[in-house]
Design brief:
This protein is an alpha/beta fold. It has helices spanning about 15-30, 45-55, 65-70, 85-95, 105-120, 140-150, 155-160, 170-175, and strands at about 1-5, 35, 60-65, 80-85, 100, 130, 160-165. It has a 7-stranded parallel sheet, with helices on both faces. Strand 1, helix 1 (about 15-30) and strand 2 form a beta-alpha-beta unit.
């Protein structure tokens, strides 16, 4: 199984974030999972890659050429895919992964997370989306998802499709029992809006 991990270029200001990221990646590697991530050598990205490699894991990086030029690419990965844009990076990371886990992070991690979660809700993929909830980092986002459902902006099933975990073993458990939410709009010609009349 390939786990796409969204992790940022900072380690945060508490040692626990790097410690838990390293423990998480090491356990994934020990469990035989490949890791797909953003290809960087810095921040939690670097922690994830180094920990997985140190425990015999296969690590696949996807990084824009601009970041290679800035010399932040990890040079010891199992595979490194260099793409031309952030959009291409996100698309490849989504395509390569069998599930997705966001570590605590900033706006880049949030962007990646929201895009892949929205794609799940819309039925563009059927893969689980999870949050490594170190130090309860994601609690307010999880509360916002509940509030969004309470206010009628998403279904309860959709709000629960963003799943908090605390370990790699929990990720494996989620994948084993995963049942995706029904797509918001069924696929097929019948679900498409009727064309406007032509004068």
């Amino acid at each position: 199984m390939r786990v796409t991990v969204y992790a940022g270029s900072s380690v945060g200001n508490r040692p626990v974030f790097a410690q838990e990221a390293g423990r998480f990646a090491a356990r994934l590697a020990q469990s035989g999972c490949d890791i797909v991530y953003g290809g960087g050598s810095v921040g939690l990205m670097g922690v994830v890659a180094d920990a997985a490699l140190a425990h015999g894991g296969k690590v696949i990086g996807v990084i824009p050429r601009s970041l290679v030029d800035a010399e932040v690419a990890h040079t010891s990965l199992s595979e490194l895919h260099v793409v031309e844009s952030m959009r291409e990076r996100k698309a490849m990371m989504e395509r390569l992964g069998d599930c997705f886990v966001a570590l605590p992070g900033g706006i880049g991690t949030l962007e990646e997370l929201f895009e892949v979660w929205a794609s799940l809700v819309l039925g563009h993929h059927r893969k689980p989306v999870m949050l490594l909830n170190t130090e309860d980092y994601w609690n307010r986002l999880l509360s916002l998802a509940v509030k969004s459902a309470n206010y009628g902006f998403m279904s309860v099933e959709e709000s629960r499709s963003l799943i908090p975990v605390h370990s790699a073993d929990e990720v494996l458990d989620v994948v084993a029992r995963w049942s995706p939410p029904a797509p918001r709009w069924p696929a097929g010609p019948s679900s498409r809006p009727a064309p406007l009349p032509v004068d």
